[in-house]
Sequence to fold (114 residues):
Amino acid sequence: MVYGSSLEATLVGIVVPDPDELCCWVKKTLNIDGTSVGQLSALSEVKQAILEELWTVGKKAGLNSFEQVKDILVTTEMFSIENGQMTPTQKIKRENITAHYAQEINEMYLQLAK
Fold:
């Protein structure tokens, strides 16, 4: 999910990778093997590699720099109906997700301001 605060000049994102795909992609991209999805999600190298991949895809799609996320949170908590982050028709509830990750979003913006 991409989030942009009206008080900030940049976008941040929350990434929920597919567990099976993440393990394969990290092994291929970073040569890291035998680590759990939770541990992989917490590694700064994984976060940076995902962010670089998002930038590459964004550039190929013709996005301008200001349309690209500048920081991301990688989490293993899937958006679901049960945790109130999706509707029964599988649409994300942006307000609920933003409220749930408010602290992490604020921390990303503080890091970007440094």
Q: What stands out?
A: Residues 81 and 90 are 8 Å apart (CA to CA).
